[in-house]
Amino acid sequence: QVQLVESGGGLVQAGGSLRLSCAASGRTFTSYYMGWFRQAPGKEREFVAAIRWSSSSTYYSDSVKGRFTISRGNAKNTVYLQMNSLKPEDTAVYYCAAGRVVGGSLTITTMYDYWGQGTQVTVSS
Questions:
Q1: What is the pLDDT of residue 105?
Q2: In this predicted model, what pLDDT tens digit does every residue of 31-60 receive, in sequence order?
Q3: Phi, psi (5° rounding) for residue 107?
Q4: Angle 90-87-120 (CA atoms, 0-180°, nearest 5)?
Q5: What are phi and psi of 103, to 5 degrees?
Q6: Per DSSP, which regions of 30-74 are E strands?
Q7: pLDDT tens digits, one per residue of 53-78
Q8: DSSP class of 66
């Protein structure tokens, strides 16, 4: 049974930092992309960042490029999202996802097979 468990969310002031973690278990993810998405109230879930597990190639949305960094742990099936220079508009529930991303863009939610339960990030102004 595949499980993705996020942690590290919380309340932070604008300009601050948070690091989210996603612990993955239940299968081998070497052929997968691991992604972070977020969903603010009343909005659609949107792509934030992704990493290709086998090569560690990284991809970012324009809104977080230069502020967020996605990485993976070497010893464990863990993916991190380091978020710096946070803005109030970054406030959302952040979800970890895993998928093979075959025949489509890695920014699309339907390309991902597995999802975590989400962790709340709130940035105050």
A1: 93
A2: 999 999 999 999 999 999 999 988 889 999
A3: -90, -5
A4: 35
A5: 75, 25
A6: 33-39, 46-52, 58-60, 68-72
A7: 888 899 999 999 999 999 998 767 89
A8: T
